[in-house]
């Protein structure tokens, strides 16, 4: 009798050792979504649509360079094309894993580079439904993660990971992320507010292969409480272009080389 | 970094149509009109790039309904050449040193104070300078050399539109003498332990004029002139706690009156700015500044000052705050700027509400309120309070 139970246990043990933890699933998801390639460039069009259908457009080029391993430090450089009152503005961020970003803004009308306060990562990015955290990643350590279940989303096998903020005074609630088992990209995310009501819905609407790396080239963030949504399209995207560290300096913030912003 | 396949030539054309009105709330102008500003303006911007070259042209055409009539202005017109080792820009260009908020410590370049006080869009606070700017970027630090062969003054408010302090109002015979020489400077900047640090050197002239009567006892003519000025300054900017700190200091060397015995020329002075910027909650930004000016050779200043002239303090302390809150997905912006010189009571308050009706059209409604002693920088404008409207269509 005992032997039989021992055999079953022995057979089960390797399965337990291979199962993914919620935290590991989220780390791999961030690595696939925000860190692939040594660097990245995309021409991004963001449509901000209010509940009446009125649209505003934000068009920019985003450049990203990883400084080290996935989950670590990154540098971002953004150049704005639209709307007219932010055209030619450039914005640079040094993102650090466990502390606040360093941010700079270049204002062409007065030819001034200024450093800007970057404390609130939950602030909206250029007025869209995406926050800075949505764009550059929320620290994995800030939440407790657990794989709730596995299910199919549009014929793709996914882990459904529940993330709950560790801080009791966090101004957001929990979220569910559908992580694609094959690519580890987040295909859907349901965010809840502090009271447990549905707040925002993220969907990866189109995933394409760019230089062999699965990339979300169309995505939407909907604010379910206000009815406002943001649709983001990568008109062009590319990886491993050999972006030099020297791009992320005041010199090129003022005068970005054409080849990097087209 | 800059090498690569030759890029095709590229030209972008853009511009705007704008209406700008500022209505007096404190009484009529000296010329009797009820507006500080009433104009329609069109701007055209051409931006051309070809390989290592770039050309930029920005010009305005405006119609002023308060007596200035039709006007044109070339705001910027420059050509850039960039190589890996250096960048050079020649032409009329806007240059800004330091990052004070309406407090200028190291920014010695021409400004338009009339634009600030008349409720014009903030970009009009800066005027272009006809200069050559050369940037070189060795590993030690980056250098920005500026050389301007001719002098361009800051625009001060027009005495027919703005009530200003005038120590000798009876003298109507006035002339202006501008420096015949050019000016130059250099900014050296680099990152130091995560902070943006810079050193500034400038040799040139004050941008706002001083007044010299031909005869102090019985003046019949006043000459406006621009005293010689040299500057040595520094700035540091970077993260401090949850926000960003901005420190600036400068020594203003009044070259033509180092002893302080010429009352018409400002004495040498030291300026210090401590600024702190933070974002306490989403879409809300707060910028706090402490600014102090210390006059050197104060005893000589007092001895040389003629009777009847206002006596300035040897050191003044000013606090400013700018609070900005965004609403409606950052399409609505409410901001308030307030400045108070606690030493002499000089104050300036500028609240403004700005809304983007669409991606192409925005409008702003604001007010300018001035207070203090009649000879103060803002106090002299106490009767010039106004409410303004800006409306712009961008194309």
Q: Describe it for me?
A:
The complex is a heterodimer of chains A (262) and B (395). Chain A has 262 residues and is of the alpha+beta class. Chain A has one domain (29-261): Clam (outer membrane lipoprotein receptor (LolB), chain A). Chain A is built from five helices and 13 strands. Chain A has a 13-stranded antiparallel sheet. The model of chain A has no long low-confidence stretch (mean pLDDT 90). Chain B is mostly beta strands and 395 residues long. Chain B has two helices and 21 strands. Chain B has an 18-stranded antiparallel β-barrel. Chain B has a three-stranded mixed sheet with strand order 8-12-11, with no helix packed on it. Chains A and B meet through strand 6 of A and strand 1, strand 13, strand 14 and strand 15 of B.
Tags for this entry?
heterodimer; A: 262 residues; alpha+beta; outer membrane lipoprotein receptor (LolB), chain A; 13-stranded antiparallel β-sheet; 46% strand; globular; B: 395 residues; mainly beta; Porin; 18-stranded antiparallel barrel; three-stranded mixed β-sheet; 2 helices; 21 strands; 3% helix
Low-pLDDT regions of chain B = none
CATH 2nd-level architecture of chain B: Beta Barrel
CATH architecture of chain A: Clam
Question: How many beta-strand elements of chain A?
Answer: 13
Identify the biggest protein-protein contact and residues per side.
A-B, 39 and 53 residues
The third-level CATH topology of chain A is outer membrane lipoprotein receptor (LolB), chain A
Mean pLDDT of chain B: 95
CATH class category of chain A: Mainly Beta
What is the gyration radius of chain A calculated from CA atoms? 20 Å
Number of domains of chain B: 1
């Amino acid at each position: 009798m005992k032997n039989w139970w021992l055999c079953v246990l022995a057979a089960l043990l390797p399965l337990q050792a291979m199962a993914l933890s919620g935290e590991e699933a989220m780390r791999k998801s961030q690595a696939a979504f925000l860190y692939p390639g040594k660097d990245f460039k995309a021409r991004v069009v963001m449509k901000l649509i209010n509940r009446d259908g009125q649209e505003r457009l934000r068009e920019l080029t985003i450049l990203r360079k990883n400084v080290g391993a996935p989950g670590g430090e990154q540098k971002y450089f953004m150049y704005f094309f639209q709307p007219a009152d932010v055209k030619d503005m450039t914005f640079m961020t040094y993102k650090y894993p466990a502390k606040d970003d360093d941010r700079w803004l270049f204002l062409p009308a007065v030819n001034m580079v200024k450093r800007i306060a970057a404390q609130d990562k939950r602030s909206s990015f250029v007025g869209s439904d995406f926050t800075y955290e949505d764009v550059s990643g929320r620290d994995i350590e800030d939440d407790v993660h657990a794989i709730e279940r596995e299910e199919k989303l549009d014929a793709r096998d996914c882990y459904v990971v529940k993330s709950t903020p560790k801080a009791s005074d966090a101004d957001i609630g929990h979220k569910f992320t559908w992580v694609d088992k094959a690519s580890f990209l987040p295909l859907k995310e349901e965010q809840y507010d502090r009271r447990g009501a549905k707040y925002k819905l993220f969907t990866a609407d189109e995933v394409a292969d760019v230089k062999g790396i699965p990339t979300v080239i169309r995505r939407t963030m909907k604010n379910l409480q206000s009815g406002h949504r943001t649709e983001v399209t990568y008109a062009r995207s590319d990886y491993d272009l050999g972006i030099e560290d020297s791009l992320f300096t005041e010199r090129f913030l003022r005068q970005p080389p054409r080849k990097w912003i087209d | 970094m800059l090498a690569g396949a030759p890029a095709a030539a590229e030209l972008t054309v853009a511009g705007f149509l704008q209406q700008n009105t500022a209505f007096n709330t404190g009484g009529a102008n000296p010329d009797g009109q009820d507006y500080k500003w009433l104009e329609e303006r069109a701007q055209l911007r051409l931006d051309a790039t070809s390989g290592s070259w770039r050309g930029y042209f920005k010009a305005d055409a405006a119609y002023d309904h308060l007596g200035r009539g039709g006007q044109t202005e070339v705001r910027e017109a420059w050509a850039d050449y960039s190589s890996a080792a250096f960048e050079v820009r020649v032409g009329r260009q806007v240059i800004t040193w330091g990052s004070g908020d309406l407090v200028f410590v190291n920014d010695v370049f021409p400004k338009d104070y009339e634009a600030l006080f008349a409720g014009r869009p903030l970009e009009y606070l800066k005027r272009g300078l006809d200069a050559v700017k050369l940037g070189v970027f060795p590993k030690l630090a980056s250098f920005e050399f500026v050389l301007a062969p001719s002098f361009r003054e800051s625009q001060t408010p027009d005495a027919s539109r703005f009530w200003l302090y005038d120590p000798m109002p009876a003298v109507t015979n006035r002339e202006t003498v501008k420096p015949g020489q050019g000016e130059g400077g250099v900014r050296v900047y680099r990152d130091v332990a995560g902070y943006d640090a810079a050193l500034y050197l400038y040799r040139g002239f004050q941008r706002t004029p001083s007044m010299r009567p031909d005869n102090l006892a019985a003046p019949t003519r006043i000459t406006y002139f621009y005293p010689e000025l040299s500057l040595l300054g520094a700035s540091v900017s970077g993260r401090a706690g949850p926000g960003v700190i901005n420190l600036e200091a400068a020594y203003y060397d009044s070259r033509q009156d180092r002893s302080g015995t010429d009352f018409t020329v400002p004495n040498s002075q030291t300026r210090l700015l401590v600024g702190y910027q933070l974002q306490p909650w989403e879409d809300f930004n707060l910028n706090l500044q402490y600014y102090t000016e210390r006059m050197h050779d104060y005893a000589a200043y007092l001895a040389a000052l003629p009777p009847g002239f206002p006596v300035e303090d040897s050191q003044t302390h000013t606090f400013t705050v700018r609070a900005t809150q965004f609403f409606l997905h950052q399409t609505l912006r409410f901001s308030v700027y307030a400045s108070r010189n606690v030493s002499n009571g000089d104050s300036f308050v500028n609240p403004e509400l700005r809304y983007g009706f669409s991606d192409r059209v925005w409008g702003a409604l604001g007010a300018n309120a001035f207070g203090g002693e009649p000879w103060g920088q803002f106090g002299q404008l106490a009767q010039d309070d106004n409410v303004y409207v800006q409306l712009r269509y961008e194309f």
